[in-house]
Amino acid sequence: MTTVMARVKKTAANPRVFLLFLIVLLVVLFGSLKPAFLNGPFVLAPLMSSIAIFTVVGLAQMVALSVGHMNLAVGQMASLGAMVMGLCYDVFRMPLILGLLVGLVAGAAVGALTGWIIVKTGVNSFIVTLAMSFALIGLVPAMYSWLSEGAAFTSKPAGLDLIGRQTFASICMGNTCGTDAVPLIILPAILIMGLVWYLYSRTRLGREILVTGSNVKAAELSGVPTGRRLMFVHTLSGTLAAAAGFMVAASVGSFTPAIGSEFMLPSFVGPILGGTLLAGGFVSVIGTFLGITLTLVIRKGLDLFGVGLETMNVLLGVILLVALSTERFRLASGGRRRGGERPSGEPAQTDDPDQPDEALKDPPESVQTEDKELAR
Amino acid sequence: MSIYTHHRKFVLAAAAGAALILAGCTSADTEDTTSEAPATSAAPESSDTATDSMEMADFSSVHVALVPGGAHPYFQPWIAAGDDAKADFGLGDMVYNETAEWDQTKQNDVLNSLAASGTNAFGIFGVSPTDINTTFKTLKDAGYAVGSLASCPAGDVNEADFCLSTDTEEAAYKAAKAAIDAIGGEGTIAHMTGNNVDSNTQRRIVGVEKAVAETNGAVTLLPAITDVDVDLTTAQKAAADLLAASGSDLDAIVTTAYNPAVASASAIADSGLDIKLVAIDDDPTILAGIADGSVYGTIAQNPVGQAYVGSWVLAELSTGNCTMVTPGVIVDSGSFIVIKDNVETYDDERQAKSTVIMEEFKSNLLSC
Question: With a cut of 0.85, is the ipTM above it?
Fold first, then answer.
């Protein structure tokens, strides 16, 4: 009985369970007070589209947070990736998938460049990504003005509208179709969530990233090529941002410089609410999804109640404040040192709880060979 | 199996359960996916003229939403005009929602929420001219009446029922012509305007360039200063920078966006330079400047007419009393040069224009 009670207490203390509880509570509350909240095509489907897009945005930030870095240019990387995709479709008439891949490569490239600068110069990721953000804010609109009419790429390859704006109602078997309350755009989001979860939970690379985020010096001494891992996470962050840019373009209908301009705040709120540590070493894919879902459910509910702009922003600001306070509390209660470094004995974690121990039991093979420069 | 594994399974199971609850299936035979959507295809009442139809119409079922792209002083007159339309035409409800925050995705969310809450007629200033047609089409396909107000979609297609907007290129052309007249047909002009990636801004730039080109080189146009309509602070900095860098060489400034107009008026007055300013819109600061001579003139737009006439047209369409003769038709809501001579009377001209637009809809643009 004691064991069961202890498990119940631990379960209740899990931030993801708490988030899920809050989401269910709010959905029931909003649905009861405003039945329109359960309107399929005009509330649930758009809500889930937003959740899908911003979950990918959150993951783009989460991978940077996993090593204790941040990516302030996440929106501009999305904008750049989307611009390259739009260019591929509009000018080069590429098919959907090929243009998507080229745009993802562009996002990866700018992410890799950012990571390379951080690693080689040792400048804080905050500074480098802020600088990258300013550079792209100038570059992307200029490129649009130069390459397009009306500062937008409006060509739509076959399949773009289907993935961006259609629901399962357009998928039929005989006379039976899916629901119009669930958009098809959740499919790429689920795929991306699965891949990121697999990376961090089931691969050696993911574990090395988390160990790097947990304590970079310990990781270096264990032979983890920390420089390469840092570059990899920024490359991955850029790739995911570009994917989010594609999803926005598909959902609104064209590729414009404005894509990504609203990404930065949600990119932090989702992961932090979900339990990802700002200092690195712990990520939660499910938590990021739940954090994004909670904020968007609240926003949608406030929308339906006709709450004004100022009140809405105040409430969303309070959510962020609570998230950051929770993060601080967790740091304090976890006995972490000031400056965000994890004590060497504390394991790096994902939301797959079986993995941390394995990460420590399974030291990298490259202990003596890789990345000596950074190890020094 | 650890407690954490239980957590994960619980979360996944709960998520799956929620998806099942939300899912459900529809029949391919059921085409009406929005039971709350209004019927716009109802047969119009038999009447000899559109005016008769308007007088007899019951608009109590019409819930109009006026949705700008975000908070901006230009749209404030929409609130009173919408309330007037509600009272004058007997609309069921009138909502003004400015929470889109200049983001097309957020504006789509706002529109979807309004649709789910019972709004059945939409007057929309689309955030992104290149994307807004997709939004219009979604609402139209669901059976709602949709008007594009104060801005038309980019390109040649308008998926809304109609667009009632300032012809931005024409308004900018008029402003530049007024400035050229003010400086005697020769000199140097600067143009301050809004978001460079907005197609309407590009049209304003074209309008100013067209007027300057007609002077055959007598007037020099400095490169357009864009992206200075974000807020008043940004505009004030831009105006101060412009005067510091080129003030002594400038003869006139044309502003085709709200914030730089207000900021330039103050900056010129403070500097004491002899620069003719032709502004946009009729902010009290601008009108006071025109009255005391520190501002040469402004180009007033017609936001009241857009909201008032637009709401009435939406009501006619929403109830099925009328249909558009040419769906997607673009109607100029008017732009009016205001100088010292007519600063007290220009609003009469504007109200007259609104009446003309309404008559144009009744006589030629609506089929009732």
Answer: no
